[in-house]
Amino acid sequence: MKDIAERASVTKGTIYLYFESKEAVFKSLVRESIGGQIERITRTFAAFEGNASDLLRFALTTINSFLQTSDRVVLPKIFLADAGNFPELVRFYREEVIERGLGAMSGVIARGIARGEFREVNTEHAARLCIAPILLSVVWRTTFAATDPEPFDYDGFLQTHLDTLLRGLAKT
Fold first, then answer.
1. Which is nearest to 96 in space by CA: 24, 23, 38, 25?
2. How is the chain split among helix, strand and coil, in percent rounded to 5?
3. Which residues, including other chains, have CB under 8 Å from residue 111's CB and lie 6 or more apart?
């Protein structure tokens, strides 16, 4: 709270005039920052007229770029570390971020299946497979990157993942 107050150039007590608790501040931060990103991506998905492979490439590249440049990349790490201490916040984050994001990704996979671009797969599992390397990149950036002898190639890693994923989804 002290850091937030300093960045906002207000006293710590002033924050509580607008938010009832630390948890409320956190929820607002998630809704405004990450929730907004998910909303934009979801609208883009709905308007996208190309094939599902191109949409998956666009989606994962966009998410990857955001997480490489945003300071919000620490949020998943915080949840992993403190999940047992803040079950209500974990539930909130799951509903607001994870479920919405996985739902959007499942929709892209289902779209590809319906159009005959992808083979029949469990869309929920495939959505998690789409995101798993992104999460590894988040953990890597927030935990291990400082000790890398050479910078990790996040973009190359994502491209390798996309090539492998799309070949696995392709209808043979």
1. 38
2. 80, 0, 20
3. 52, 55
The angle at the Cα of 160, spanning 150 to 146, to the nearest 5 degrees, equals 25
Q: Which residue has the tokens 């009832």?
A: 20
* pTM (two decimals): 0.81
CATH number for the domain whose boundaries are 22-169: 1.10.357.10
Q: Quick count: other Cβ atoms within 10 Å of Cβ 52?
A: 22
Distance in angstroms (rounded) separating the CA atoms of residues 19 and 25: 6
- DSSP code, position 118: B
Residue 131 and residue 138: Cα distance in Å, rounded? 11
Instruction: Give 78-131 pLDDT, tens digit per residue.
Output: 777 777 888 888 888 888 888 988 999 999 999 999 999 999 999 999 999 999
Residue 6 CA to chain centroid, in angstroms? 27
Partners of 118 in beta bridges: 170
